[in-house]
Amino acid sequence: MTRSALLEISAVNKFYANLHVLKGVSLEVPEGTVACLLGPSGSGKSTLLRCINHLESIDAGRITMSGQTLAYEERDGQMHERPRAKIDRQRQDIGMVFQHFNLFPHYTVLQNITLAPTLLKKSRKANVTAQAMELLDKVGLANKHNAYPSALSGGQQQRVAIARALAMHPKVMLFDEPTSALDPELVAEVLKVMKDLAQGGMTMIVVTHEMAFAREVADSVVVMDAGVIIESGTPGEVFDNPQHERTREFLRHVR
Ligand code: ADP
Ligand code: MG
């Protein structure tokens, strides 16, 4: 059985002024699968994630989720940005976790998680709080709900950031080097949460340099270089038998 693509990225192009950063990137992420995105610094990985949740506009191509075009609609044969309210609703289906956790420093852990659902989903406060506590339990931090971010380790803060993204019930989670800013001894606890999430069926795109994680958890490994996907396949295919010299070179550096 082939699984339908939850997220479909088709011939996406992105420029920053004259700099052509994404050069016709196409990628399908089936529902319930994990794609690990690898590639050297500056290859466009972050830009691709930022385009998916429309933190950045795209200049050509199309990104669809569940068959619906994200952020743009076609009129008179041209793509136009959708109304802000519609984009905001679509973006609620896309959770993002950044390298720097960006928690709100003046809110407690629990408040960090309940803020957006309270503002945007307008569920009853008691339900939002109960769900936030469940998520905190899931990331192993139920006992920290009243702590402020500054009292937590980097690994704990990143787990709160993951819980915060999950609180919006996203259909897909995007991770941009979620462990790159962490002390080495804190990396495993965050990867464990991500692995649990993957095993629970979450659809994920993960930019990472953690090759062991990619090998174990990814359904597909996608290698970018200079704005182009140069290679993709199963972890076995890409790691054990890379086709592209640039992939071999990249793997030599991260191993
Ligand atoms: P990666 O995440 O793979 O390291 P990025 O997507 O961050 O790559 O960057 C791709 C290219 O786009 C780089 O050349 C980078 O300098 C450039 N770039 C990224 N963000 C911006 C921006 N906001 N304005 C101009 N150039 C940018
Ligand atoms: Mg990046």
Automatic annotation (TrEMBL):
Question: Which UniProt keywords are given for this protein, alphabetically ordered?
Answer: Amino-acid transport, ATP-binding, Cell membrane, Membrane, Nucleotide-binding, Transport
Q: Which GO terms describe its molecular function?
A: ATP binding
Q: Which residues form the ABC transporter domain?
A: 7-251
- Where is this gene product found? Cell membrane
Q: Which CDD domains does the record match to this protein? A: ABC_HisP_GlnQ (cd03262)
Q: How does it sit in the membrane?
A: Peripheral membrane protein
Q: Which SMART domains match?
A: AAA (SM00382)
Q: Does the keyword Nucleotide-binding apply?
A: yes
Its predominant location is: membrane
The family assignment reads: Belongs to the ABC transporter superfamily.
Record protein name field: Amino acid ABC transporter ATP-binding protein
Q: Which organism is it from?
A: Arthrobacter cryoconiti
Where is the organism placed in the taxonomic lineage, from the top?
Answer: Bacteria, Bacillati, Actinomycetota, Actinomycetes, Micrococcales
